[in-house]
Amino acid sequence: MRIELTKRGDYAVRAMLALAGAGESGRLTAPQIASLTRVPPSFLPQVMADLSRAGLVEGRVGRIGGYRLLRPAREITLLEVIETIEGSARRTSCVLRNGPCSVDGRCAAHDAFYVAQEALRESLGRATLASIVG
To answer: At what angle do helices 78-86 and 44-53 cross, to 10 degrees?
Structure first.
C-alpha cells in the first residue's frame, strides 16, 4: 500500500514546517524557504500562492517582506495543509475496482478501507505543525 503526496503537496508541507520553525520573526523570504526545504525556487511561488489563497500564510513584498503563518503553528494541522494542496483525503473510488462501489454502495473491502482511511485522516488532523517541529 502506498501513501504518498504529490510533489506540490510535499513542497507545501516542507514550506509550512519551515515557517512553523521560523523563530521570533515568524517570517521567511522565498529564498530562505527554498534553501531550508530544498524546494525548487522556481516552483515555490506557486505552492505559496495556494497556501495563501487557503488563508494559511500571508505573503508580503518589500524590504521586510516574506511569508508568515496566519495562525499559530499549534492551530494548523497536517491534514489541513495536505488537503489544501491535494484535495480531500477521502477516497472517492473503490479500492478493488478503481471506480464506484457496486449498486448497493459497498464492495467486500469497503468497511475495512473506510476505517483505515478515517484513522489516517484522524492522525493527520491531530498532527499540528507545532507538534511536528517540536
So the answer is: 110
Give the long-range contacts of residues 94-102, CB within 8 A, separation 24 or more: none
Q: Domains in the chain, ordered, with CATH?
A: 7-133 (1.10.10.10)
Instruction: Report the C-alpha gap between 124 and 119 in whole angstroms.
Output: 9
pLDDT value of position 91? 64
Q: Residue 2 and residue 12: Cα distance in Å, rounded? A: 19
Q: What is the pLDDT of residues 69-118, one digit of tens each?
A: 999 999 999 999 999 999 876 666 676 666 666 656 677 777 788 888 88
Alpha carbon 71 to chain centroid, angstroms: 15
Contact 27, 67 (CB under 8 A): yes
pTM given for the model: 0.86
| Dist. CA 116–CA 72, nearest whole Å | 29
